[in-house]
Amino acid sequence: MTTTAPVRTGTAIDISRVSVRFTSRRSRTTALDDVSLPVAPGEFVSIVGPSGCGKSTLLKIVAGLVRSTDGVVSLLGSPVAGPQKQIGFVFQRAALLEWRGARANILLQAEMRGMNRRAAAERADALIEMTGLTGFEKALPHELSGGMQQRVALCRALLHAPPVLLMDEPFGALDALTREQMNAELNRIWRETGTTVVLVTHSIAEAVFLGTRVVVMSPRPGRILRTFDVDLPAHRDYAQVMSDPRFDRLATDLRGLLGSAAANH
């Protein structure tokens, strides 16, 4: 297993020397400090680090929802200067409209973007089948489990076929078994769509299971401590991966690095 990413051609996301400082009347906080990270098309990059290290802020900068104090971020070859329409974003909470069924919640994306109705409906139906939501198209959010709500949120984020998907702790509130099922589902969807994915998570197991690379960030101010390549096949069976010595070695290395960073902070 290597700890240096192999050379790749082209970038879907290019984060270059990004720093973020928040200033108030009483204090000045550096959330991110000199962060650089290229992400190649089709990669699945997992980001782990302690709470408050700026992981979520980094995603919001890529999405154009937060501006960096220093540095430059490019998405698909263009500088990020405002909210980006070509991305999908999945948050920890599904944030579904309670009065709309699952399919109608997915199609909210189409309404907001002015997508062709017929094309959007066909895409929604394909995503519903892909994510195992068939039969629950009209179910209201309170009639769905947490995992199924997150499936709806994922379909909504993928409706416009974004080349880049950003995910901020999307499965953090789920029980362990449902989380494992969603991890396996996400791995399959990533392989089938070829979407570039950046995932923020506090789970080392999730980061390794899903990622082609794992980026480890330091306590605040957030810096990249190290990047690990994940030496596992693209198609990942949960039981097989968990028993693979390569998974165990990498998970151990990640825990050691995070523990050392916390102790020295």
UniProtKB/TrEMBL annotation:
Cytoplasm is among the record's keywords: no
Domain named ABC transporter: residues: 15-254
Protein origin, superkingdom: Bacteria
Classification via Pfam families: ABC_tran
Molecular functions (GO terms): ATP binding; ATP hydrolysis activity
Keyword vocabulary terms for this entry: ATP-binding, Nucleotide-binding, Transport
Protein name listed in UniProt: NitT/TauT family transport system ATP-binding protein
Native organism: Micromonospora mirobrigensis
